[in-house]
Design brief:
single chain, 368 residues, alpha/beta, Isopropylmalate Dehydrogenase, 2 domains, two-stranded antiparallel ribbon, 11 helices, globular, binds nicotinamide-adenine-dinucleotide
Length: 368
Amino acid sequence: MPKPILKFAVLAGDYIGPEVMAEALRVLDHVARLEGLVLSHQAADVGGAGIDRHGQALPESTLRVCEQADAILFGSVGGPKWEKLPPKEQPERAALLPLRRHFTLFANIRPGLLYRELTDASPLKSERIPDGIDIVCIRELTGGLYFGKPKETTTLPDGDVQAVDTMVYKKSEIERILQVAITTARARKRKLCSVDKANVLETSVLWRKTVTDYCAAHAPDLALSHMYVDNAAMQLARDPNQFDVFVTENMFGDILSDEMAVICGSLGMLSSASLGAGKNSLGLPFGLYEPAGGTAPDIAGKGIANPCAQILSVALMLRHSFGLETTATRLEAAVKKAVTSGTRTGDIAFGRPSVGTRAMADAVIANL
Ligand code: NAD
């Protein structure tokens, strides 16, 4: 079968964004040479770089580049240089949210991965995670409280001020994210936990009923469980590996996925995929792939940022938007081998000698 042309947009962003992106692309070049893949990527400005060069965090020209691609490889945006701008113009809000909306990126897949050799990086006691952590959070990304209307602040007749956010979910939106969760669970241990607040919220009552009915009809092979979100937050800190895949609505997922990132140690190792409702030219999900962390201004320009999260984002892109499961697994294995055999950037070195961004990528290449 002819290998597909990998057509993707490269939005490196700000501070460490371009540093880790350059290394991730160098690693991907190497993978492409090994596997006879054809790369066709186009870079465009986003975030602070977009503001500085085009006056907008998400310039029209950047959006066009993304529309013509089959996936977006994203770095990260924002930082002190732009923090005095009004909130609506801040790089993160003015670039990422419109991208999510424009491409209906409804499914956020966040692997919570901590290798056994890096358990020291976790704030959890090592005896709670003797084999590290390996779980996945599936967060609904375009519904719920963050997008529901009305969303407004009003002054009441008596002079008091009232603010309203609206939490709203349709059955179809719940089924859509559930399909992603089911596919993810089937590729792992066939274990799925749905997280909600069905003892209090109407949306959660619908969520739980929809999940129960849909799984009974379409995924009876999965071990399905339900958990209230407050309990899930505690269980993640107590025994994260009791989950394998968990699925939840937007705000709960925002909070739980950040808790998951903390227990997994360095942000430099965590990647994420946001899959769209639309298909790309290959008939696969269009998606945006990015590290879980931000632009790390504290270490930018020093050549010491960990490129692994960006490299692992490439692996997610190969898997989900290009259907290259074996290549994705090979790349993930190379990152794991490089790190567990002792090549570490400062964020995961724990007092041992550390290497810079480029040398870390070299070690991944050597282990491919
Ligand atoms: P951050 O994630 O940038 O950094 C938090 C800590 O993690 C820092 O100590 C940093 O050095 C470290 N870190 C993060 N990535 C690393 C890597 N690859 N290698 C080694 N260490 C790494 O969070 P912050 O400092 O709160 O945010 C900085 C800027 O990034 C802010 O402007 C924020 O708005 C933005 N941000 C952007 C995104 C995004 O683009 N998706 C996400 C989060 C934060």
